[in-house]
Amino acid sequence: MSETREQFLDAAEALFADKGFYGVSIANIADELGLTKQALLHHFTSKEKLYGEVLKRISDHFDQLVDEARASAAEPADQLKRFLLSLCARPPGDTAGTRLLMRELLDNKRRADTAGTWYLKPFLEALTDMVKAVPGWERASPAEALALGYQLLGAITYFAVSGPTLKGIYGASDYEALAEAFPDQLQYVIDAALTSPRSR
Amino acid sequence: MSETREQFLDAAEALFADKGFYGVSIANIADELGLTKQALLHHFTSKEKLYGEVLKRISDHFDQLVDEARASAAEPADQLKRFLLSLCARPPGDTAGTRLLMRELLDNKRRADTAGTWYLKPFLEALTDMVKAVPGWERASPAEALALGYQLLGAITYFAVSGPTLKGIYGASDYEALAEAFPDQLQYVIDAALTSPRSR
DNA sequence: CTGTATACTTACCGATCGGTAAGGTGTCAA
DNA sequence: TTGACACCTTACCGATCGGTAAGTATACAG
Q1: Domain range for residue B41?
Q2: Within 10 A of A69 (CB to CB), how many other CB atoms are there?
Q3: Are residues A27 and A71 in the same domain?
Q4: Domain identity same for A38 and A73
Q5: pLDDT digits (tens, 9 = 90+) for B13-65
Q6: Which residue of B has its CA nearest to A104?
């Protein structure tokens, strides 16, 4: 894999996450490396294909996080917990992938017709399996298991995406306190959701 | 308030929610009413101002939902629950506001410098107050209360935003089952999070 | 009949968009 | 020495962007 190619992908991921597909021009991305947009097109033939490769890289990374969580614990509940916490305990500033996936979630009604690939599908299936493996959840319907997984995933993703806004509203120091309280509070909610007796 | 003005706001809300600020041109919006973009500029002087008015209308609607939930129940826990459920029990297709706010969350690092207004602030403060009013949560720190509120809010918002993608991945009928299971599952998580003994 | 304001129109502007065409430069194999 | 390929450039294209300028049509007050 070419060095320049990789740098293009890095720059594109950061810029697409910040401003969205329409908000960034291929010239903007090329400027980041001090090159012209035609250098970019030489490596990726079109803006749409570059975007696709960025998405692929992110979804691969998510799959890898799932694998790591699965290998790190024996108990299904622990696996799920570790995975979810690994999502929000990422090094600060590493929210680009999460933010970009959120944008994709909002935009892909447009892209679905053309691209036709659902990058999140294997990831969501793994999430559902993890929930259904938790004691007390074996007999939940796929819809119920996915609903719970999606709610926990949403809680994390929504917060990860809100960084700049929350910092703007509450100030940097209050946000710091919130970011610190968040994982503990999340762990508490996960435990409560997984261990409370199901009402059905 | 002019009739045409209102129609412009409706069309703009729907289109901005679908494609984002950069993804929609003022000509697109005007086309929706069979008018030219200069008719739009006559009412709103600039694209940025139109966008601001759309945001304002949505945040007003959210504030109204909070008020309704507060008036509809005596118990703080019930108020919170009713409010959160009213968010996800909206008539289908009414997710435009939610989706647009999600986009704003992603974009307003850019807009914050210019606009300077935090439409979500009063709404988040109301949310925090509701959590802190729940028995057992009075002594939680603001950060802890907000963290919980934000997690529940995120669970709902994330799902509301994912409609098209989930429909694409699982098909319309499976998605229907998921959308039906979601509120019950959410209620279960809310109850679990609010009533379980806090661990501190 | 005569302003004056509202609600729109057509015409046009410079800037920027994604993408094509063609050419230059370096490296490396035959 | 000669191709062939990878990598990158300048030059250019038609389309579209947000916004300005200058009207036109209607209604209504004096």
Answers
A1: 1-45
A2: 21
A3: no
A4: no
A5: 999 999 999 999 999 999 999 999 999 999 999 999 999 999 999 989 988 99
A6: B165
Distance (Å, whole) CA A151 – CA A128: 12
Dist. CA B115–CA A161, nearest whole Å: 19
Q: Which of B106, B154, B182 sits opposite A147 (nearest CB)?
A: B182
CB contact under 8 A, B150 and A168: no
Tell me A59's DSSP state.
Answer: H
Q: Are B87 and B11 found together in one domain?
A: no
Question: Domains in chain A: how many in total?
Answer: 2
Alpha carbon dihedral B109, B113, B118, B124, in 10-degree steps, equals 40
The answer to whether residue B50 sits within a structural domain is: no
pTM of the full structure: 0.89
For residues B167 and B175, the answer to whether their CB atoms sit within 8 Å is yes
On whether residue A51 sits in a domain, the answer given is no
- CB distance B157 to A154 below 8 Å: yes
The candidate with the shortest Cα–Cα distance to A6, out of A49, A45, A57, is A57
Please state the φ and ψ torsions of residue B29, each to the nearest 5 degrees.
-65, -45
How many Å does it take to go from CA B167 to C1' C17? 32
Which H/E stretch holds residue A46? none
Contact with chain B for residue A28, Cβ under 8 A: no
